[in-house]
Amino acid sequence: MVLNKKDFIEIEFTGKIKDGEIFDSNIKKDLEKTNLNVKPKPLIFCLGEGMFLKGIDDFLIGKDIKEYKIELLPEKAFGNRDSKLVQMIPMRIFKNKSKSSSRS
Fold first, then answer.
1. Number of other residues whose CB lies within 10 A of the CB of residue 25
2. How confident is the model at residue 94 (pLDDT cuts 50, 70, 90)?
3. What CATH architecture is 8-95?
4. Rounded to whole angstroms, how far apart are CA atoms 38 and 28?
5. Judging by beta carbons within 10 Å of its beta carbon (0-12, 13-18, 19+), is residue 56 exposed, middle or buried?
6. Is the pLDDT of residue 100 over 60?
7. Distance between CA atoms of residues 82 and 77, nearest Å
8. Torsions phi, psi of 55, nearest 5?
9. Is 0.90 topped by the overall pTM?
10. From CA 104, how far away is CA 93, in angstroms rounded?
11. I need a labelling partner for 73 at 20 to 30 A (CA). Which of 4, 15, 22, 96 fits?
């Protein structure tokens, strides 16, 4: 089966930077190699609708369903790093937050 725009797909993935360090994954064995404290869960999205990385959409449309290794340039992923957009926040700020806060 060939993947088409607007197909809903479920993928397992591991995102790595050039040196091989894992920065995100939904694969249990890969998450165990990191200090990421997340439970693996499926990633389901509509192909070609901007719900995931543009580079993934562009690569998968027209491809058969199988396993791929994809290398993305920054502009097709999260963009080039811009140090002006990075803000350092002292840990004490988070330690002083009320533990009763909850996310809705």
1. 20
2. confident
3. Roll (3.10)
4. 9
5. buried
6. no
7. 14
8. -65, -35
9. no
10. 21
11. 4
